[in-house]
Amino acid sequence: MTTILEDGNGLFSTHVALDDVNFAIKNEMRTESELSKDSLLEIIGDGNGFSSCVILVTCDWSIPSIDLPKKLVLKIVSFAHIKRLIDNAKSKGFCKVKSKDEEKMAEHFLISILAMHNQEINFYEILSSANAENILTPKVYFSQKFDETNRCKGFIGMEFLEGIGIRHSYENCTVQEFQPILKSIASIQALSFSVPNEDFKRIEDESVYAKSVEAMMSGEGMKGCFEHTRLRDTEQFTDIVERIQGYGTKILDFKKAFNLNKVLGKYYQKRLRSRGPLEANILWTKESNGQFTALKVIDYQTAHTGNPAEDLVRFLTSTLSGSDRQAHWEQILETFYEYFLEALGENKAPYSSEELKKSYKLFFPMGGLALLPLFGAAVDMKLESMDKDETEKYKNIVIEKLKCLLEDVEKFYLESSV
């Protein structure tokens, strides 16, 4: 049986054909118009989507209308980028996985990718029905979920914004630049207390996300991440990587990390939404003064319910320089808490500012190590296409972020072990 892990005969070797897209357009945009074969389709941001093929569509509509978009972004679930990352890691000796284990990984990817795509659509549907002006989500025109009869064709069509770009983990943001994102995260988490229970339950199961992280960080996969990190700068990283590896499975306490609410005695009646990875899923525009402004937050495949610190550990670690994060994380969490209280309105806060800080420190050891792949093969593939000066600049940024990340992984682990 053909699976989504294999190349297809559709658009850009996916399994989705233009006819599939037009069927969804007619059903969900309530129009008889469709994209003609004269529509221009081109891949944008190659390598940005972990499990997606992202296509810019310049629309040629069969029945023109001012109500239809001139351009849209088509995001198709695809395994191609993951395969390139794995092949790249194998070629450099960072991924030494036995064929039997590789088959298990493929089986897990298949299950998790299908579930995460459906989860993202559920999340967009919930956000679209919520009256929350600070949530920076794009407009979604149409989508197609996976089900028992459709295991290969999943996609989302959303608005296209001119003059925007993505900033990667090898770049640094400032605290000022990411305030709109901080407010967006707070607003999304506060929605836990305003959306109907039946909507909330559609994304309540965090098991797919937790199992995905655990699978990625188990066995040879984690060894490869450690080795790749060590080789970034053997002089700086060899000792600390070996020490962290020496803590064994205790530092990779998945049960604790994904049950922090219970650990803290805070099992909320409605568990707070955690958005999932944010690092390369923010759309920015550059102002004339050189500053960046965040316009939209995209990609909610790993949205789940959990502890509020999960988003903050990932967000701060991936966007800020390591030194800025270490110097300002407490102040940033206090600002986030103010945004959260504002978004809650008259609802009672389920946790205090101090409990948020404690959660941050408890989640950081596992959450920080889970980010190591973010600075690994995907970064290497991006840097390979740059000139020497750019490559050196961004490598230094990555090394600085990793240095501070590893320091805090060890620091907060030892503090929690006392």
TrEMBL record:
UniProt protein name: CHK kinase-like domain-containing protein
Pfam families in the record: DUF1679 (PF07914)
Annotated ranges, domain CHK kinase-like: 155-346
Organism: Caenorhabditis briggsae
InterPro entries: CHK_kinase-like, Dhs-27, Kinase-like_dom_sf, Oxido-Kinase-like_Enzymes
The organism's taxonomic lineage, starting at the top: Eukaryota, Metazoa, Ecdysozoa, Nematoda, Chromadorea
Domain of life: Eukaryota
SMART domains: CHK
